[in-house]
Amino acid sequence: MLTAQELITLIKAHNKLVSIKVRASMKRETLIKLIEDKGYKVDHKNKKIVDARKDRPRRPKITLKEAEDMLPKPKTALQKQKAQERKEEKAAEEKKKLRMAKKEAVEQSKKGEKKPVVKKPVVKKPTKKEDEVRPATKPKSTPKPKPKAKPVKSTTSNKEDEVRPARRARRQLPETKKTTGTKVEDKPENVKVKKKKTEAEKKANKEKVKRADDLYRLKISELRKYVDMYNERDDKEMTLKSKGQDKDQLVNKIVGYNIDKIFKIPIPAKKVKQTEEQKAVKKKQNQKKANEETKRRRPFLPYLKYIGELKRKYNAETKEKNYTNVEEVIKKMKEQLEEKLEEIEEKAEEKDIELDDEIYDDIETDIDNYYKELREKATEANEK
Asked: Would residue 124 count as lying in a domain?
C-alpha cells in the first residue's frame, strides 16, 4: 500500500500533466477521495494513478519512479545550512553599507557651512486710508434747560361753609368711548376648533404606537415581504410601494393598513441587556475566536502578501496594454502562485504545521474572482 508521502509525490508529478491541486497537509483518505473525484483511481499494486473514465481521451500515466525523477529533489541539511549562511552574509553586507552611508553623510554635514536663514519680508496690511479727509465731527448740542414748574394754586378756599355746584359730565361720542376691559377679537369662521380625543381614541393610538414599536424589531427585508404579500391580495385597498422605502415608511404602511393583523406577523422577543459579567464572558469568547482565526491564517500570511504584490503589478501592466494581455498574465500568475505555495508547504512541513483547508479554499476563491474580473475588463475593452 502507498503511504501518504508517496501519494503526494505521485500527485505532484501528475499535476504537471493533468493539474490536480494538492496540499502537503492533506491526509491519506482525503488524497484518495481527491483522486477519485477527478476521475482517476489509485493502482496500489503497480504504484500508479490510472484513468477511471472510458468516455474521454486517454490521460498520461505516471509511476512513482518517474514522479521522483521528474520532481526536484528535496534540499539536504547541508544545502539548507549554506543557503542560510549566504542569506546572513548578504544581510550583514547590507547593514555595513548602510552604516558607511550614514557615516559619510555625517562627515559631509560637518564640513559644509550652514546656509543663512533668509527671513521673509513682512508686508503690513493697510489699516486706514491716511490720505482721506475724515468728516468733521458735529459739536455736541447743549441740553435745553427744563421749564420751571408753575406754582399750583390751592383748591381750598377760605370760605369753608360755601357749597360748590356739582361739575357737569362731558358728553362723549360713541366712537371715542373707552372700554374698561381688553377687547376680544371675533374668531374667523374658517378656523376649526380642535376637539378633545375620547378615551377610545387615546387607547387606539396607544395600541398603534405599541404595534409600531414591535415592528421595528424586524429587518427591512421582512417588512418589505409582508407589504408585497398585501399587494398580492385581491381585497387590498391600494397597491403600496415597498422598494426603496426605509424602515419608518414600511412600518407606517403596515400599521396604517393593518397588515400586521391580516397576516399575524410574529414579533421577535426584546433583546435583554447583558450584565457586566455576561459582557466580559462574551468578550473573552470573541477574543478566543479571533486568536484561533489569526493562528489558522498565520502560515498563509506570506502567500497573501505575495498575492497582493502580484495583483498590484499585473493591474498596472494590463491597464497599460488595454487588457489585451489578460490570458498571458493569468497563466504567468498561476505559475508564480503555484511555486510560492509549494515553498510555503515545505516550510509548514519542516515546522510540523498543518495548513487549514478552509483558509486555502477562501484564498483560491478570491484568486478565481480576480481572474474573472480581469477577463470581464478585457471583454469590455474589446467591445469599445
From this structure: no
